[in-house]
Structures are given as structure tokens and as C-alpha cells.
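Key result, reporting period 2: structure in, sequence out.
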């Protein structure tokens, strides 16, 4: 899953693909680089990110999705919409997206579960220590981080099923970096014990790419990201959400 952030404030590439033409150009690059999915996002969820209205988010993502949908279809690449807003998800799917990526796991918009069920598309549910899309650098401590994340995901899977979402349409993401805690050890423990999440019976997505729990400055995190991703694959991840598609492909 190649990341396409159409935002001015994403931690890694904020503002780089903020214009329509640059976003479309990057989408074409992501396809050429070998991605199976393009994850289109119009609102950053990192620490110090800014809330984006529904209208603004739609203005950012829908024109891009409409333009890249035919290209993606030709190359058999799926489009994921990275949003927690149900109306954005609805319009994105109508425009050509076929996966919803909700970093709040329904907590950001109570209408999202019903929308996902009605749209009948896969939905990614991510654990976050924060109940909103605005994650923080809080040094949250856990007695057993895997147990805590597992219980949360079990609860959200049940919520999804009760809303009418098919089990096969649920993808889980245990979260990484600041979404877990500003204490790096917890993210590494999740990677080490990732196979335990298989018992939930859902595909597992992992997003370690350039995250702050990895060593070094942002520009030095490519190799650590690749290593973390390979550990994740070895331990059960089936989707890798990455910035560096070519390098990630070469490792598989």
C-alpha cells in the first residue's frame, strides 16, 4: 500500500503532493513502483496535525480519486481512502475507491460502520491510544500492550459485525509509533508478537514507514522501516503501508 498524502502537514511528506497535478503524478509513480493499493488521505493524523472540515477533505481527495481511478483500474491497483468521516468515505467509493482506512476505528464518526456495511467494501480498523484522529506524543504505559490492543480490536470487530460488516471485509491495524505510545519499546513488542493477532481472523496491516519509534532522523529511517516491515511480514502482516514502494518491493 503506497501512501499518497494530499495534505500540507503530514509528518513525512506534508505539502509535497498537495496540488492536483502533483498528486496525480505521484499516484502514477506509486503504480509504476509496484504498489497494489494507493492510500489517499486528505487529513493528517500525526501529532500537532490540524482538523480538516468535511468540505475541505472532499475538495482535496475526490478530484484526485476521480482522475486516478481509471489508471488504477487499468493496472489492477486498488484505491484506499484514508478517512474517518463517513461522507468522505461514501463519496470516495463513488469516485473509485474500494477500501476505507479508518484510523479511529469508528470512534471519529458513529456513522462510519453503517456506511461501510452499506458500501460493502473492506475497512481497516486501527488501534490508537487516542480516541480522535489527532494523535499525541503521550508516553502511554501498558501492562501488556498486545493484550490491550487485542481487546480493543476484538471490541471494534464485534461493533463492525453488529453493524452488518462482513468478517472478510475487516482488516486490522494494531497501530505503530505515536498511535501506541511515544515510548518506542511498545511498537517493537507489537512487531515481535504480531502473530498473536492472527487469532482475530482478519488480515493484518502494518504501517511502520518512517515512524518516530524507529531510530534516527526522518531522513535516516528507510532501512529501519524496511527491517520493521520484513519482521511484520514474517510475523503475519499481509499489507504494508509504506512511503518507499520500490525499496519495500525489493525486500519481498
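The corresponding designed sequence is given below.
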Amino acid at each position: 500500500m503506497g501512501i499518497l498524502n494530499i495534505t500540507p502537514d503530514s509528518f513525512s511528506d506534508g505539502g509535497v503532493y498537495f496540488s492536483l497535478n502533483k498528486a496525480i503524478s505521484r499516484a502514477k509513480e506509486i503504480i509504476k513502483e509496484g504498489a497494489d493499493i494507493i492510500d489517499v488521505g486528505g487529513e493528517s493524523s500525526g501529532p500537532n496535525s490540524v482538523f480538516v472540515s468535511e468540505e475541505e477533505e472532499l475538495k482535496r481527495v475526490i478530484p484526485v480519486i476521480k482522475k486516478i481511478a481509471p489508471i488504477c483500474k487499468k493496472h489492477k491497483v486498488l484505491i484506499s481512502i484514508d478517512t474517518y468521516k463517513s461522507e468522505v468515505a461514501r463519496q470516495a467509493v463513488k469516485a473509485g475507491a474500494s477500501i476505507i482506512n479508518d484510523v479511529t476505528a469508528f470512534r471519529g464518526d458513529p456513522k462510519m460502520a453503517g456506511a461501510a456495511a452499506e458500501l460493502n467494501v473492506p475497512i481497516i480498523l486501527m488501534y490508537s491510544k487516542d480516541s480522535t484522529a489527532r494523535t499525541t506524543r503521550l508516553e502511554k504505559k501498558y501492562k501488556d500492550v498486545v493484550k490491550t490492543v487485542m481487546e480493543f480490536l476484538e471490541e471494534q470487530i464485534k461493533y463492525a459485525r453488529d453493524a452488518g460488516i462482513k468478517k472478510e471485509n475487516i482488516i486490522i491495524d494494531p497501530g505503530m509509533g505515536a498511535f501506541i505510545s511515544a515510548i518506542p519499546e511498545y511498537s517493537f513488542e507489537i512487531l515481535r508478537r504480531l502473530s498473536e493477532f492472527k487469532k482475530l481472523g482478519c488480515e493484518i496491516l502494518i504501517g511502520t514507514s518512517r515512524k518516530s519509534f524507529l531510530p534516527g532522523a526522518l531522513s535516516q529511517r528507510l532501512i529501519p522501516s524496511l527491517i520493521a516491515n520484513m519482521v511484520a511480514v514474517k510475523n503475519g502482516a499481509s499489507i504494508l503501508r509504506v512511503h518507499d514502494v520500490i525499496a519495500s518491493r525489493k525486500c519481498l
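Helices lie at 20-33, 54-74, 86-95, 112-119, 145-162, 184-192, 222-234, 245-251. Residues 2-251 form a domain with the TIM Barrel fold (CATH 3.20.20.20). This case is discussed further under Risks and Mitigation.
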